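Appendix C: a fully annotated inverse folding record. The material below is reproduced so that readers can follow the format used throughout the book. The structure is listed first as tokens, followed by the designed sequence.
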């Protein structure tokens, strides 16, 4: 008999708790399921199931075999799905989590182009400034900036951004300009309250080390655009990615607080659940983002 068919019959009996329900699940006769399982036990030379008049349960050996068999069956299913998907256009609902700043200013304007290119995909983009759990919260993917905190997820870099400390010319005229990192302790700092690190800035020093600046700050906001607006208004110094401050800096509304510091370049990543098989709709969207944003330099993003 076919080894995969034997595995499937056995695993389904365990899943369903009996031969009758397993037969219904597989769409074959109860006797056929029994023959598959018996053939498997004979080939392995081991009893995999405890059978009583009321219930069927795996033996200790059967339970160990079930774990491996289920993985083999899942891998086989993924292989079949991969071939099928490669022969058809990406489709279905794509649910994305993205930080409000990046989503509003940069992702929203290009979504129309993506939907026109892939008309069988619908998008549900959720804008928030918190760390979401992709699997438990039913997201297909997320856009994240900076260090990847969850190593279990798969990630692909879309582009890069440069973080800088910026403030308005009026602020520097009133409070002076910090000349080195230690001078920040005497200044009014504007913090992004949704960061997991709290009111702590990790700043590359000229020596190459990463310095940490801890301050309660004058203002904390969970929205980067609001922090930029506060900096433009002269309320303090904000530590922001270039995709937020670039236009304001070009217009002279903000200036670099300590220009001589090394660049703090951070990656912008598409992250998605682990597994050998990437859903076609996810792969299509990530390829689209790399095409749109991949050639933009970190100083603009």
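Designed amino acids, in order:
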């Amino acid at each position: 008999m076919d080894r995969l068919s034997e595995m499937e019959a056995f695993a389904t009996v365990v899943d369903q708790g009996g031969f009758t329900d397993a037969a219904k699940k597989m769409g074959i006769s109860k006797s056929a399921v029994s023959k598959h399982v018996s053939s498997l036990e004979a080939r392995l030379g081991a009893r995999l199931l405890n059978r009583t008049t009321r219930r069927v349960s795996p033996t200790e050996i059967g339970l160990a075999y079930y774990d491996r068999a289920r993985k083999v069956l899942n891998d086989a299913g993924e292989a079949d799905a991969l071939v099928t998907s490669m022969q058809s256009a990406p489709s279905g609902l794509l649910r994305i989590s993205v930080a409000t700043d990046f989503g509003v200013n940069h992702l929203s304007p290009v979504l129309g182009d993506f939907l026109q290119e892939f008309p069988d995909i619908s998008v549900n983009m959720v804008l928030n400034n918190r760390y979401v759990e992709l699997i438990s919260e039913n997201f297909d993917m997320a856009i994240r900036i900076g260090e990847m905190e969850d190593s279990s997820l798969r990630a692909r870099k879309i582009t890069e951004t440069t973080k800088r400390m910026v403030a308005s010319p009026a602020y520097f005229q009133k409070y002076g300009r910090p000349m080195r990192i230690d001078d920040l302790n005497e200044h009014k700092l504007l913090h992004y309250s949704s960061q997991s690190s709290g009111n702590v800035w990790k700043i590359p020093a000229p020596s190459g080390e990463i310095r940490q600046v801890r301050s309660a700050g004058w203002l904390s906001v969970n929205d980067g655009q609001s922090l930029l607006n506060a900096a433009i208004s002269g309320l303090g110094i904000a530590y922001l990615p270039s995709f937020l401050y670039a236009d304001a800096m070009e217009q002279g509304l903000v200036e670099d607080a300590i220009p001589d510091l090394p660049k703090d370049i951070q990656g912008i990543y598409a992250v998605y659940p682990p597994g050998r098989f990437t859903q076609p709709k996810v792969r299509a969207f990530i390829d689209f983002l790399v095409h749109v944003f991949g050639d933009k330099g970190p100083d603009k993003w």
